[in-house]
Amino acid sequence: MVDAVPKDSRSVWNSGLQRAALVGLGGFLRPLARFLLKSGIRYREFADIAKAAFISVAADEYGVRGRPASLSRVAAVTGIGRKEVSRIHKSDMAQLEAKFWASELNPLTQVLHFWHSDPEFSVDGVPRLLGFLDGEPSFAGLVARYAGNIPPNVARSELERCGAIVEMADGSLRAVRRQYTPNEVDVEFVRSMIFSLKSLAGTLAHNADVISREGPATVNGRLERYAWTSSLSEASRRDFRILAERKAEELLLHLDAWIGEREQLDLSLGVTPDQGQKKTCGFGVYHFEDAGDGEAAGRGQACLHPEK
C-alpha cells in the first residue's frame, strides 16, 4: 500500500499543529467570507474553488518521479472523493484562473511605472511632462508601448479619475503618483486584493516549508515582519497609521525606483529571466486593524520569520 501523505509531512504537521492551523484558519477566513458574501459569492462556489486548489497542489506536488499525481492519489491525499476530483479536474477552473492571472500587473500600473523609469519618458526617475498626442514622446506613445490595446483616452480618463495624473495649464500631462490604485470595488480592485493575499500566503507557506526542512536558523526564508499593539488610544492609532503610511510610501518609492533602474540595466545588457521563465518578486506592506474580535492582545510585539 502506497502512503498517501509523505512521512516527513506527517512528522512535521502533527495533530497539535493541525489543530492550531485549523483554528487559526477560521480567523483568516472571517474577513474573506465577509468580502465574498458582500460580493454575492455563496459557500458552494467558494467550496468548489477551495477543492480545485487542493486538487491542483496535490496533483503538482504529490506525484511520482516528477509526474503529476494520479486521480486516485490526489483523492487519497486530499480526502476528496475520486469522482469529485475527476469532475473538478475536467472543469475549466484551471483555465479561468490562468486567464485571470494572465497579467498580474495592471496595464495602467505598467504605464505609471515606466513613465518613471524608461529614459525615453523620464529623466533620472522624474517623469517628463507629456503631450497627449502631440510631441515625442507622447502619452499616447507611452500607453501604446506599455498598455497593450487600451485606447489612450481611456487610460487618461482612468488615471485622472484615480488621481495618478493631472493636466497642466498648457495641456500637457504630469504623473503625480507611481502606482495605479483603483478607488472602487471592481475587477481590478479584486485582482489587486487577491494578488496581495496570494503573495503573503505564498511567503508564509514558503517559510513554513524551509523552516520544517532546515530549522529556524535557515537563511532561505523570505522576509515577513510586523509590529503591532493593542494598547493605543484612538488618537494614537490614527497617528500610527499616518506615520506608517508615510514611511511605507517612502520605502516603496525607493524600491520601485531601484526596480526601474535594474530593469533598464538588464535590458541594456541583454539579460533575460532565468531560463526564459518570468518569476515575480516584490515587496508588499499593509496596515491592519481589527475590531477586537478575539485575536490575542499584546503590546509592542514583532514577529520575525525566519530568524536570521
Task: Describe the secondary-structure layout.
Blueprint: H1 7-12, H2 15-38, H3 43-61, H4 71-78, H5 82-90, H6 93-100, H7 107-117, E1 122-123, E2 126-127, H8 139-146, H9 152-161, E3 165-167, E4 173-175, H10 187-214, E5 224-228, H11 234-269, E6 301-305
Antiparallel strand pairs: 1-2, 3-4, 5-6
Q: List the uncertain runs.
A: 1-12, 294-308
Radius of gyration: 23 Å
Structural category: mainly alpha
| Helicity range | 40-55%
What form results from the Cα inertia axes? globular
Structure notes:
By secondary structure, this protein is mainly α. Among the domains are: about 1-100, no CATH class; about 105-175, Arc Repressor Mutant, subunit A, CATH 1.10.10. The chain has 11 helices and 6 strands. The strands form 3 sheets. It has a two-stranded antiparallel ribbon with strand order 1-2. The longest helix is centred in the C-terminal third of the chain and has 36 residues, at about 235-270.
Essential attributes:
308 residues, mainly alpha, Arc Repressor Mutant, subunit A, two-stranded antiparallel sheet, two-stranded antiparallel ribbon, 11 helices, 6 strands, disordered N terminus
In short:
By secondary structure, this protein is mostly helical. It contains 11 helices and 6 strands.
